[in-house]
Design goal:
Radius of gyration: 36 Å
Number of helices: 39
Number of strands: 23
Helix content: 40-55%
Oligomer: single chain
Strand content: 5-15%
Protein name: DNA repair endonuclease UVH1-like
Structural class: alpha/beta
Length: 952
């Protein structure tokens, strides 16, 4: 552990209540938390860890195991356990009482606290990870509020390594402290004195390699930035977004999409389609810049093909002035297409002139039979420039080690730093790791050829899939595979965008590759059969079976390709292969490379302490990984660590890395200013009072205003109860209801989500859930069950507080009743269930106020009765019970359809007679008394007494 990490722990332990720690990314929070585990003793109570991601949990447990194994202690440390929903209540209770360290989800913990399975005094402290995700309505804040109310000695230690997320919104850091009932904010940026001293005392040797991009890559990057700038200019014209945030530099980060959406969400229903599409386009353009430096040329072209087919009908960026360069340059990185005249490759035509020229050439073909005039598809297969540089770096590392071994220095290095010779290559994702490993093993040319063949064969397989009929194809807007069939409209879009002849030429080239693979597969199968006949090896038959199945698949692909091309392509296609020559494939065989391990940064696994590499290559530099390398070197000062950074020169990759450093420093500067100005209310003991402290004095004064009754003595308050379904604790509404002073009773309900009184049952739906429930038919069944068992069924439609309080934009509301319209579905639901009440709520706090007003002058709900509602019983019909068997729903439905029976009198009729047979025998006077009038009674009596018509 580094010294600054010990300082963080010491500073955190000074306050017995705990604190909030915000660090720079990559400063080893998992080591700090595992050290806090060592300081915990089971006699203090249990230590609960909340909001840990799976990768964080794995890193913390691995570090804790390594530390406990290295320490010699008489007392055996209890390893942390995990509480999941699979554990029954009695096992959870035994784990709570053991006083151990427990990883637990917030949903399970809040239910156990409310049901009193977990006594608050049994909890010694909480460790909350990812504190930047907390808010006053989050379940973690709910948990802390309950624990703080009864356990004054509880400590809460919260951590975050996302400083830029802690400055989003108004006073985010201050509100986070209040919702956790904390006073101390501990800031540990990279430029903090202790951190910089530790990491810069013995830094690793760094080699910064700037790789020049290819000409086409430069062209694509320039074109994407121009298109992004054009989209941002269009966005600025709306005058509805903060202009300062709309910069290309901010557009490189993933959080940019969230910033723009956060500003536009409250007015989303007022925006036009063009503005909404611009938000989506900016996200697409950011991905294009990111993928340009991450993926090879063939995969980049494949991604562009999918974009061109799926977004060409609605995207704004595709119609920008420079967008055609993106597609043109991406295609030129992979292949050139043209017509050779007298053996020379023709110039590649632009998209505007290509179609006309090809039509002219087709007329010439009818008049001429020359074999020299043919279509040429020339492979280019441009390799990513970083591939060659990576191979060169690996060879250089091996050459240095060989020289050191010859001079006798290697032994000294092994003795000093325990050098295992591993070279760690850090990439962004798993795909890049696998591709680079293949590149080192087989050579760059072979990898690019395999990707090229996959690209062509994917076109063959797409062509072979069954087509939709013409009527359905007109409704489609896109290209791709939908439910196993090809969208015909999308096919037309692709063919028109790259010309029919070019598309057919690609299919013809794919057909040649398919035939070659089929031929090789058959030859291997024949050889395999010969080996099996000779009696070699018992397990050879399995390989034979696998090969034959692959061959059958290829035969189908070839046959479908030939069938697809019948009559569609009459020219002879000449595939000119890329000249490989002597490349790295042959040189890698002759030159030895060091042992290489690839690591995906997106996996977020801390492996430096496990692998202990001597050389690290940051193929995709990341600011958090850089800090991890610095800490690794600071903790191992005797180990010689050399780090290579591979950047594309003058690329957005460099710009994004530098901007991330500036953004983090700016976030910490803002937090430092906030820390000097924030006001945290405390009680007499110096403990934080939380977010609701300002409301408490007012509530006491309002209670004491009644001075005429008992000399101003406070009346005994009636406890307000709300029965909540267990599944509802995924939302924040129970937390807000608890803030309003209501007692939450968590149970498993068969009918409804919230029971406010014996009469009122509420089914809560968010907007997204409402659409899904209508589509699946689940909402109809839920409302039917509520109407059966409760007198006042309520459908609550709840909006998000930071989004527009508008169900649909005005342009989306039609005049006619259509089965696809959500307004029509709601209208039909209300017509079918007349007693259903629909409540619209604009936020969680508005819902809490609505619930409070609905509960006014109502009895409190019965927990036992609410649990039994709708549950089938084994005993059958029980007197005065509310189970399903006690309701003859078919008889009730028949009663409500009788003439003269209305919603106002059918319940009186049910109370006045026991069956339909008894109803039919009631005299006229009794019917009039029950139905509230002679007219309704006469209609029902005439219906009962009417004779059947005589059959002639």
């Amino acid at each position: 552990m580094a010294q600054f990490q010990e300082h963080i722990i010491t500073e955190l332990l000074e306050d017995s209540n705990g604190g909030l720690v915000v660090t720079s990314a990559g400063l080893g929070l998992h080591k700090i938390i595992s050290s806090l585990f060592l300081l915990h003793h089971h006699s203090q109570g249990c230590l609960l860890i909340l909001s840990a991601t799976p990768s964080q949990k794995a890193s913390i447990l691995r570090t804790y195991e390594n530390v406990t194994q290295s320490q010699i202690s008489d007392e055996v440390q209890n390893s942390p356990a995990e509480i999941t929903s699979d554990l029954p209540a009695n096992q959870r209770l035994s784990l709570y009482s053991s006083g151990g360290i427990l990883f637990i989800t917030s949903r399970i913990l809040i239910v156990d606290l409310l049901t009193r399975r977990l006594p608050t005094t049994a909890v010694a402290g909480l460790i909350v990870l990812n504190a930047h995700l907390l808010s006053d309505t989050s379940t973690e804040a709910f948990i802390v509020r309950i624990l703080r109310s009864t356990n004054r000695d509880l400590y809460v230690r919260a951590f975050s390594d996302r400083p830029h997320s802690m400055v989003s919104g108004f006073a985010k850091a201050e509100r986070t402290l209040k919702c956790l009932f904390l006073r101390k904010l501990h800031l540990w940026p990279r430029f903090q004195v202790y951190v910089s001293q530790d990491l810069e005392r013995d830094p690793p040797e760094v080699v910064d390699i700037r790789v020049p991009m290819s000409t086409y890559m430069i062209g694509i990057q320039k074109a994407v930035i121009e298109v992004m700038d054009a989209c941002l200019k269009e966005m600025r014209k709306t005058n509805k977004v903060d202009v300062e945030d709309l910069t290309v530099e901010n557009g490189l980060f993933k959080s940019f999409d969230e910033i723009v959406r956060r500003q536009l969400d409250p007015i989303w229903h007022t925006l036009g389609k063009r503005t909404k599409q611009l938000v989506s386009d900016l996200k697409t353009l950011r991905k294009l810049l990111d993928y340009l430096v991450r993926y090879d040329a063939v995969n980049y072209l494949k991604y562009l093909d999918s974009l061109r087919a799926s977004e060409s009908f609605r995207s704004v960026w595709i119609f920008a002035e420079s967008s055609y360069k993106i597609f043109e340059y991406a295609k030129k990185r992979v292949y050139h297409f043209g017509r050779s005249d007298s053996g020379k490759l023709g110039q590649i035509k632009t998209a505007s002139t290509k179609k006309r020229k090809l039509n002219d050439n087709k007329k010439d073909e009818d008049q001429s039979t020359s074999t020299e005039n043919r279509v040429v598809l020339e492979e280019v297969l441009e390799e990513p420039p970083k591939w060659k540089v990576l191979l060169d770096v690996l060879m250089e590392i091996q050459e240095e080690r060989d020289k050191r071994a010859l001079s006798g220095e290697e032994k000294d290095h092994l003795d000093e730093g325990d050098d295992n010779g591993i070279v760690l290559v850090a990439c962004k994702d798993e795909h890049s790791c696998m591709q680079l490993e293949d590149c080192i093993t087989n050579g760059p040319q072979k990898v690019m050829r395999e990707e090229w063949e996959k690209y062509l064969l994917s076109k063959v397989q797409l062509q072979a899939l069954p087509k939709r009929n013409a009527k359905k194809a007109k409704e489609l807007k896109g290209f791709g595979v939908l439910d196993g069939v090809v969208a015909t409209a999308g096919k037309k879009a692709e063919v028109s965008s790259i010309s029919k002849q070019e598309h057919d030429a690609l299919l013809a080239a794919a057909s040649e590759i398919s035939k070659r693979i089929n031929k090789d597969t058959n030859a291997e199968a024949g050889d395999q059969k010969h080996v099996d006949d000779g009696g070699f090896g018992k397990g050879k038959g399995k390989g034979k079976k696998k090969k034959s199945s692959a061959g059958e698949k290829t035969n189908n692909d070839v046959a479908s390709t030939d069938k697809a091309m019948e009559g569609g392509f009459s020219d002879e296609v000449f595939l000119r292969k890329h000249d490989q020559g002597l490349d790295a494939e042959s040189s890698s065989e002759t030159k030895k490379l060091p042992p290489v391990v690839f690591y995906a940064l997106e996996s977020d696994q801390k492996i430096l302490d496990i692998l202990k590499p001597s050389t690290i290559i940051a193929y995709h530099p990341d600011i958090a990984f850089v800090r991890e390398v610095e800490i690794y070197k600071a903790e191992n000062p005797l180990r010689n660590v050399k780090v290579y950074f591979l950047f594309y020169e003058d690329s957005t990759e460099v710009q994004k890395f530098e901007a991330s450093v500036r953004r983090e420093n700016g976030a910490f500067e803002s937090l430092i200013r906030q820390k000097s100005l924030m006001m945290i209310p405390v009680d007499r003991d110096g403990r934080c009072l939380g977010l609701d402290s300002s409301n408490e004095p007012q509530s006491v004064i309002s209670q004491n205003l009644i001075t005429r009754k008992a000399g101003g003595r406070r009346e005994a308050e009636k406890e307000i109860q709300v029965i909540v379904d267990m599944r509802e604790f995924m939302s924040s509404l129970p937390n807000v209801l608890h803030q309003k002073g209501m007692r939450i009773i968590p149970v498993t309900l068969e009918v409804g989500d919230y029971i406010l009184s014996p009469l009122i049952c509420v089914e809560r739906k968010s907007i997204q859930d409402l659409f899904g429930s209508f589509a699946s038919g689940r909402l109809y069944h839920q409302v039917e069950m509520m109407s059966r068992y409760y007198r006042i069924p309520v459908l609550l439609i709840e909006f998000s507080q930071d989004k527009s309080f508008s169900f649909q934009s005005a342009s989306e509301i039609g005049d006619d009743v259509t089965p696809n319209s959500i307004i029509s579905k709601l209208s039909l639901l209300v017509l079918h269930f007349p007693r259903l009440r629909i409540i619209w709520s604009r936020s969680l706090h508005a819902t809490a106020e609505i619930f409070a007003s609905l509960k006014a002058n109502q009895d409190e709900p019965d927990e036992v009765k609410a649990i039994r509602v709708g549950v089938p019983s084994e005993e059958g019909v029980i007197e005065n019970d509310v189970r399903a068997e006690n309701y003859n729903t078919s008889a009730v439905e028949l009663l409500r359809r009788l003439p003269g029976v209305t919603d106002s009198n059918y319940r009186v009729l049910m109370d006045g007679c026991k069956s339909l047979a008894e109803l039919a025998m009631l005299p006229m006077e009794r019917l009039a008394e029950l139905m509230g009038g002679q007219k309704a009674a006469k209609m029902l009596r005439d219906f009962f007494d009417a004779k059947y018509p005589t059959l002639l």
